[in-house]
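fyi for ur records
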Amino acid sequence: MSFNSLYQIGGEITREYSTRSTEQIENFIEDVLRKELGEYEAYINKMNGEIMEYVQLKNLCESILLHLSDGIKTKMNIGGNFFMSAKVSDTSKILVNVGLNYHVEFTIDEAVKFCDFKVKSLENEANVIREKAIETKAHIKLALLTIGEKEKLLKAET
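which gave:
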């Protein structure tokens, strides 16, 4: 997008804000734009959490490939924070939650590839939301600038 097109878009938004009262603009900023920005940030945090889970799963799979091919001893939560010891003797396959609580059995190599794919997919989705958040922040700044300009004009008139 070129500077001229951004300037035209900014001009249209500024004209839209300039026809409204300062109180209406402030209410719009608080009620709509800041709420929208908060939702975007919450969604980005959720996406980052999912990305971290897949990175941890990938690291676990790589550790299994390198060091734990003969089995794993672990503790399993059997409910109500009660744990029991467990031994996994066959580490050639793993169940992975692929979404909507649906689990698929993968080999360790397939699980690593799936984790890479899922991380890239989630990062792309988070980047789209980040762009929307940046756009919303720009709208907030434009609205605040419009308020400032209106106040300057009102002071100049008096």
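The chain has one domain: 9-157. thats all i got for now
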